[in-house]
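A common beginner's mistake is to predict each chain separately and then try to dock the pieces by hand. The better habit, illustrated here, is to supply every component at once so that their relative placement is modeled jointly.
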Amino acid sequence: MIGLIQRVLIDHVESHYGEAAVDRIAAQAGVSSPGRRIDTDYDDADTLAFFEAAGDYLELHHEALMTLYADLFINWTRRHYPMFFSMADSAQAFLGRQPAIHASLGAGIRDPDLRSRVNDKFRVVDQSEGALIVEYRSANGLCSLYRALFARVLAEYAQSGELAETRCRHRGDDCCRFEMTFATGPGSLSGSVA
Amino acid sequence: MSEASSTVTDDRERRLIAQVDSISNQLCQAVDGGFEFHVHTDSDEIALQKLAQLNNFVLDSVRRTIRDLQASRDELEIRVDERTQRLNLVLTATNDGVWEWDIDSGNITLSQRWSSMLGLPLEGGQRGLDDWLSRIHDDDRAEVQRSLYQHLDGLTSAVNVEYRIRDARDAWRMVLCRGLCQRNGDGVAIRMAGTQTDTTEQRLVDPLTRLPNGAYLDLLLQGRLARIPFAAMALVKFQLLNVASLFDGVAVDIAVAALRGLVQRMRRQLPPKVALIALPEHTFAMIFETDAADRLNDALEPLEALLAQPVEIDGQQVWLSHVSGIAALNPAEPVSVDEWRHRSRLALANARLSGVGSRRYYSESLRHWERQTSHAEQLIRGALATRGVRCFVQPIVDATTGEVRCFEALMRLREPNEGIVAPVSFIEVAERSGLIAPLWEMLMEQALPMLKDEAICERFGDSFSLSVNLSPRQLMDPHLLDTMIAILSRHGVSPRRLQIEVTETSVLSDPARAFRILDRIRGAGISVALDDFGSGYSSLAQLTSMPMDTVKIDRELVMNVSTLPRKRHVLSAVIALCQRLDYRIVVEGVEERETLNILCDWGVTDIQGYLYSRPLPLDRLVVDFSPPRPCRVRGAGRAASGSSLPAA
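With all components supplied together, the output reads:
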């Protein structure tokens, strides 16, 4: 998994709970030195273990951790990649571009197979006015994170919308499929997830 | 800022600059057009990592784009290759060559097939339009150019022109050229391209024999006459007269196969360089490089020897008859293609008249003969158009009673300038041209009413018959009997009052068929007479086999019989034979009383000749001819003089 994912969480823990907290979480996850480089790909299992240990440390169950992380992620990327946000004038535009952004984050991976896996994780299946369908294909099964990010992006653009996960690897499907709709005008600040 | 702090800042800046410089240096690899590298930074600075990462994203995007373009190009190449293969398959299957004319440069590019179609070596590169046009036949070149330029100028929707083109062997091939112009947005022609299809088989080959055809002969004749220096040559036309015999009672495909086999054998009898060309009516043409009659005769002998053998077909043997006409050209006397062809046609036509196996050379006398023939045909057509047929009659008298037994109806033509024209001037042409049939019908329309004419019947009684001649061609007409019955019926005349006269030569070409027809005619009640017996090469065999009632002995056997004892012996023998065979006998050409007396002594009663009357116009018959007095048969004492008929 690209280092940026882990870097956002590490920065949060470190800034709020100190370096020792990072070391403790890493120790619990069995990761000797959690990677921080955003242009480097790290072992998926280590990253997932670090996330789980961080949830324990922060005493957050998985969904809550994902909600927190989505907020951290948006804030972090808005600071370091403001252009991505200014390029999109709506939540749908941002999420429609998300697979390409994700691919750009994985572009530094030297191994072409690994790079392809990163590039192919997200795919826009269909897109029309007020509607977007995205497929997520990864053994990591972080569809919960996508759902949290959907809600956070809606909030970022002060829009409302709905997400239905019509397929899910956790249910035995070959991928997770997010069918999203977006209100055209300003609505409630939070989205709903089916 | 303290000095220490300033130093730290400087160090950090230098490191940042060094890292940025490192990234820039790595990007320099792209100047070679290669994008298979990654930008790397050791910096912990997120901004630098981000810079490296986004550079890598751009590089990856470039790589992806190049890969996509390459994939598209590969796919296009595969499709182009497939389309090319399909097009080549179609062009190969259709035997087409391809040409492309670049309008600006004027260059023509020709495909390998285009060149091989003409047996030309494949010359790489391009050539000028004139190169192509120079191979085209002189008579076709202007039309090809017109077709190309009309399409170039937008006047036609496509090029579509057929022409003759010279191949590598200097032989002519027929090709069909089709093409289209490609134009730019302003409608200006950029290039023209199309196909060339070899249509020689369809245009220059005779479908029945698969030999070159008449159009090909024209090309050869033009080519030979255009040669410089002009050499002696001869155009030979060789006609098979009875090819229809091959088809008698045989399946068409078997007969066609036999004919094809025969023409191939004929071809092998000729020198390899002499083409055998098939023309209509089973005529074949050849061009020999000599005008010497002995060499031409030598060249034709193997062909004639081949045809002296029967053609085996379906277990049967068929002999084919032939004639040939030769038009030799003297190097000092060049002629046009039309004239050369005409001379050979005249020679062949004259050979046909001369009988099977004849070989005739063109000469000026044939031109005279042609003029006469042409004059005769005009005469006949004029007579038909103006009802200029005139019926003359000559009586056949029973010498012992003086009664007229029969009138022979004789045809004359009335021509405004020439007056009455005798048959010798037109009958042969009428027969050959088929105009004899309408002439004959006109004659019958005039002659038949005499059988019921009041004045004639009062003078000659009402039991005489009418005798008319039939030409060989008429005799073989399957509708002849129907025609005669219809005319008789129209005039209310009994068939028993009609007699037809046929010559031996009428039945010679196909005796079996002729005899069947004569049987039917006699069966209908019409009498049959063998005319002109004793003239030419008469065959006594016909006397025993031919279905007939009467023998008319020709004047050649009769003339001077009173003064030439040996001739008298022959005539007496012929008459005795006819009497033994129970035929009626009419002796023609009797002009002297002494001859009449001899004939009467021999028991011959029916006499025709100037002694009684020359042929008279029908409207003058009653006025100019009266029945003669009976001839008194002389006593037995005359037998000593040798004039009595020898005992049988």
